[in-house]
Prior knowledge:
Elements: H1 2-11, E1 14-15, E2 18-19, H2 21-50, H3 55-84, H4 86-107, H5 124-155, H6 162-192, E3 194-195, E4 201-202, H7 204-224, H8 238-255, H9 277-293, H10 297-303, H11 309-314, E5 320-321, E6 324-325, H12 334-356, H13 363-391, E7 400-407, E8 413-418, E9 422-426, E10 435-438, E11 444-449, E12 452-457, E13 464-473, E14 476-483, E15 495-501, E16 507-511, E17 514-519, E18 528-530, E19 537-542, E20 545-550, E21 559-567, E22 572-580, H14 591-614, H15 621-646, H16 651-674, H17 681-712
Parallel strand pairs: 7-13, 15-21
Antiparallel strand pairs: 1-2, 3-4, 5-6, 7-10, 8-9, 8-11, 11-12, 13-14, 15-18, 16-17, 16-19, 19-20, 21-22
Amino acid sequence: SSELTLSVSCLQPSCFGYPLSIFFIVINEFCERFSYYGMRAVLVLYFKYFLQWDDNLSTAIYHTFVALCYLTPILGALIADSWLGKFKTIVSLSVVYTIGQAIMSVSTINDLTDHNRDGFPDNVAVHIALSMIGLFLIALGTGGIKPCVSAFGGDQFEDHQEKQRTTFFSIFYLSINAGSLLSTIITPILRAQECGIHSKQRCYPLAFGVPAALMAVALVVFVIGSRMYKKVQPQGNIMIQVSKCIGFAIKNRFRHRSKEFPKREHWLDWASEKYDKRLIAQTKMVLKVLFLYIPLPMFWALFDQQGSRWTLQATTMDGNFGAIQIQPDQMQTVNPILIVIMVPVVDAVVYPLIKKCRINFTPLRKITVGMFLASMAFVAAAILQAQIDKTLPVFPAAGQSQIKIINLGTDGATVRFEPQLQTVNVTPAESTGYMTFETSKLQSLSIISGNKTAAKIIELPGENRHTLGVKNTATGIVAELLFDNVTSKPEEGNNLIRFINNLPDTINVTMGDTSFGTLTSLSASNYNLFPGGRKDEIVVIRNSIPCSTTSQAFGFGSAYTIVIDECTRDALNVTYSEDIPPNTVHMAWQIPQYFILTCAEVVFSVTGLEFSYSQAPSSMKAVLQAGWLLTVAVGNIIVLIVAGASKLSEQWAEYVLFAALLLAVCIIFAVMAYFYTYIDPNEIEAQLDEEDKKQGKKDKDIYEKQIEADSKL
């Protein structure tokens, strides 16, 4: 068999002492991670803005998908180890994965069902159905190949290439981080573009199409290297053996539950009738670690909200970083960037300093600190959310109406809301903020401007905003009550803009590429949506003579009424009235919570796997990996349960709830860690080897004595 192994390794082409096949595996992993994280970065905003789901449903479906992505690796490992082998499993599930990504990108094409060409899909159910099919196939694909690719890469090396194998894993994980970082930067930029056949909107087909293309590239690259791979045949899955051992022990213990049977030292010892002592001892070690995993899902429940709640939080913030405009979904890149910086800093500076202070910073204490830091990150998120909430406009509730006044004239105006509700003075060319009234009580308006008076009886529908345009003209006071039809702050940092014609003539108004049509004197246009953070040229045509000016920068998430005051061949004079203030809390204020959460990840995630592998035999790594991935899946399910059951109307309160839950779990874990006794699996394995040798020697002696006895006969 050694000759056969040698011939196989000679057949494998090598480059710089490494099997050439691993380069195909690394490129495959980079493309696959780009595909997955690129799609995931824009997913929650696709739910919210394209499918028009609310924040809670968008968050719920997002976390259901992530949970599924971390449940399917167990299925992938079973298929690879017990049936198809790693190569065939990767290829077949990558095909499923690519089809899923393609379906997902097709589901985002607005023109697919936009038959009336109004910019909105006519049959949202079709898009939802395609999205769900696509996401299910993606979860099956990405999860299924997750445990196979790195292990398949490790299989390419011979026993004497331990150093090269270690370097390969470093490069492999670097390709994962590079793919996720680049995709999280690039796909939000693609999403922010405008595209479409009949109408222009956010370019989700491109944002999902590029990850789909990268997955197809990943599959092609992997298949190209097919002849170079060393393919190990499936040898059975250790998880199945462990599960059978546990199942038999429970069944056997139940069968012998009466008091006449003597108790055994450990309940797993009831499996000794069928399974060998080594497997039972190894399973005991694994279960000891898995018991400590029970509180861990709560950490992931908070950690994975970076892609859902924190991204939605960023949509209500100002993303203007000077020359760069940051998209809400790009803020997720802060985590991988900080990871690259923090891992070496913590290993080279923080841990040695703690050691110098003679603090015994054990792995379990590190995990406890990680959970505490994640809890504090959500406290920071709650404080930030409270500040954001202060800047949000208050819209009229049931039975209420809101009115603001714009004085379009050159004289001051006094408006009384009757019967004797409120009196407001408005200077020329100025406007008030919105005032809230009980709709049933407000009956009429009395207006005084210059030496003229006017009265206006009003009937408002309620739960809406209105603008009262007042102007003292030569013929009397003109009072126009406009219906604003805006009941929420513009999403995605867009701005709402409308115009009022304060000229005596009819005009035609255009801003950027958007035409507001023809406006008669003292009439108003409808609101139109504009991307945030930019200036546009305003062009007014009056009596066939154009006049223009460049608008002010409107920020993000605002609404403005622009009053056309003067239009001559030389100049266009306008007045801006702010209807909804722009987002004023800067996205940079999210960096502290990302920093705290990244610190938590460094001491929690890295230490967690390290600790797990140090406390169980190497043959059980697959079981611990499955258990670790299961904690991530359960964490995402916890988000669904808590967010669904809490019924909290304020987002900051939900952040505090999650922080409190993790803090409580952190205390429970600290108690569990205090009573945990560290073991050395190698020592236990050595004892088992020694016992096997003794047993072997004993069996040999018995056999020799038997032979001797038989020969005497």
